[in-house]
Amino acid sequence: MPTQLQPFSAGACLSGGLYSLFGWCVSSEIPLPELRCWSGPDRPADVLIRTGQVPPLNGDTRQVGPLITFTETALRFDMPGVAVYRVDGGSAVTVEPAPGVLPESPEIRLFLFGTVLAVLCFRRGLLPLHASAVEVDGQALLLTGPSGIGKSTLAAVLVARGHPLLSDDLCALDVSRPDAPLILPCTPHLKLWQESASHLNIRTDGLLPVRDGLEKFRIPVAATAEALTPGAAVLLSRTTRAEQAGLRRLHGAEALNHEMVHRPRLGIALGYQPRMLLGLAALARTAPVFQLDRTDTLEDLPELADAVTGLIRKQHPDG
């Protein structure tokens, strides 16, 4: 196992279930071992996560797909066989585990750190990006694109080369200062399929899968806790022909691709499309956006890692 992929351990939080996430103080009845413990001042929590019953929503409800219903103030997310989640405003989450599922189950946290976290980001003024991010020369390199495209696997190669992780799969973009957007750190873990982990000589012995029946594991890695300015964003895309593989710079509307947003249909349904466009525009003004067409082969990972890190180093050769 590469030295830089030595496990990160948050340990038991001495503050009684207080965690740090995107600068928020999170109080949780559910253990969240993926998160760092809260080390800020003693103050009321920004987000409260508890377990309890989640009844159907009342009043004028709308639906996004078969699993999500919402009102102006609340959202219910039914994940069959796992849990029902309710988000009230941007500060309270209630989790009702499915029969036979323990609150501390990894699959409870899988969807908590996915759809539920995206909703919290939207409602707390952040833009959730469907991206993995690592630090390169003091800036954030974003690897974005649809599920299964290889974001986490490429990020693992970069972490093994000594580039600390900021976040995997979901990154938070803070555009409270549109002229100086920031990528905020999330959990110091990568989610890797066993095939990718084996190819990279990363051992998964003793690790629980992210969900029962999946050969996909959450692997603790070296990470940074610092918010960073985006240096480049790379939209990964799949091609079946090797001669079509390569990088190209995106300009204008091409650089404002909704695939870069985590749960874009949900964000639009909740009324956040203007924020999505403004956030993507702020990102594109700050950092060049590229499309990287690649094949499914894992053998090209070293070459891809060279190419994407070079995007930042060419702009800052003395960085």
TrEMBL record:
<dbReference type="InterPro" id="IPR027417">
    <property type="entry name" value="P-loop_NTPase"/>
</dbReference>
<dbReference type="Pfam" id="PF07475">
    <property type="entry name" value="Hpr_kinase_C"/>
</dbReference>
<dbReference type="GO" id="GO:0005524">
    <property type="term" value="F:ATP binding"/>
</dbReference>
<dbReference type="GO" id="GO:0006109">
    <property type="term" value="P:regulation of carbohydrate metabolic process"/>
</dbReference>
<dbReference type="GO" id="GO:0000155">
    <property type="term" value="F:phosphorelay sensor kinase activity"/>
</dbReference>
<dbReference type="InterPro" id="IPR011104">
    <property type="entry name" value="Hpr_kin/Pase_C"/>
</dbReference>
<feature type="domain" description="HPr kinase/phosphorylase C-terminal">
    <location>
        <begin position="129"/>
        <end position="184"/>
    </location>
</feature>
<protein>
    <recommendedName>
        <fullName>HPr kinase/phosphorylase C-terminal domain-containing protein</fullName>
    </recommendedName>
</protein>
